Amino acid sequence: MDTSTMLNPWASDQRPLGPYGLLIEQAELSGHLKKRRDRDIAMATDLAREQSPSLQLFQVLRQITAQRKELDKVNIEVQCRLQDKETSDITHLGTLENRIKQLNELSQHLQTVMQHKGQLKSRLQKPFVGEYLHFAAQYQRCVAEVFPMLAPILSDLQTNLDNIHWASSFSLDNGHLDQTLDELTASLAQVETGLQSLVQLRGSVSQMHRTSRSQQSTRRPKSKGR
User: Fold this and answer.
1) Domain count, the chain
2) Region annotation Disordered: residue ranges (predicted)?
């Protein structure tokens, strides 16, 4: 008997396979099915990952690393916001435009002063002449108390006069009042929306600051006792 033609029953590639076995083998070779060895290795790996404390520790460390990266991104963003706030007076266009406008107004004022320099000199060289209010000594204390009370009233006088002028020219004909109330309602709604946005922004910034401080406190090395 020729032994070269005999099949080795222990070799997986020489065992006689039925039609289903050949079909499965062809599917494994073509990649449509995973090989049983790969499947066993994957199952063993999953089982070891679930039961091995060291692998679980690696997963926890990987999660901690990812969270630290996110916190670093938040810290960088907070630092950028703080730096932007500190340098806003020289980097923001709106602030620069206001500064330029103030400088232009100051320059115009100085030019006006220089143009009327002669009048200012002549006025300053004249002695001060003014009209005074004469009160009896017994009423001077009352007058001293009244003038501080009149100061805020006089400061609001122009505003009150403007309100009186507006009320005299305001008309209730042709639905003017309804239109004004609608505009007032829309303005109040916009103000409320803006306030809510500011409150949310303030809460977010406070949360970011607390997160940054807690992260910095956890990163500080603890001093060892002597």
Assistant:
1) 2
2) 204-226
